[in-house]
Amino acid sequence: MSPVEVRALEPYRIWLRYDDGVEGEVDLSDMASDGVFAAWEDHSFFAGVHLGPAGSIAWSDDIDMCGDALYLEITGMKPEDLFPRLRNTADA
């Protein structure tokens, strides 16, 4: 699964749709104003969210997020649900 669409919502939320049909919103307000994410205080900057390389969700070259991590948040899945080989590693 890879993100195919992203839209900024207010305040500090994004909507995502993935190629497997999963879609949903993620609240990023707990990160806003923290470190590099202070750039989001400029609402036009936050609204510039776009799909970055390799499935990332990006605002600039310096600010991006892992599409897989956001998928987990939307679905409530655990990493080993998405990546079954992790389960085998944990058992070893």
Please, could you describe this protein's structure?
There is one protein chain. A hairpin with a 5-residue loop joins strand 4 (50-51) and strand 5 (57-58). The protein has helices at residues 43-46, 67-75, 79-82, 85-91; strands spanning 3-9, 13-18, 23-27, 50-51, 57-58, 64-65. It is globular, with a radius of gyration of 14 Å. The protein has one domain (3-91): 2-Layer Sandwich (NE0471 N-terminal domain-like). By secondary structure, the protein is α+β, with helices and mostly antiparallel strands. The relative contact order is 0.17. It has a 3-stranded antiparallel beta sheet with strand order 1-2-3, with helices on one face. Strands 4-5-6 form a 3-stranded antiparallel beta sheet. It has 4 helices and 6 strands; from the N terminus they run βββαβββααα.
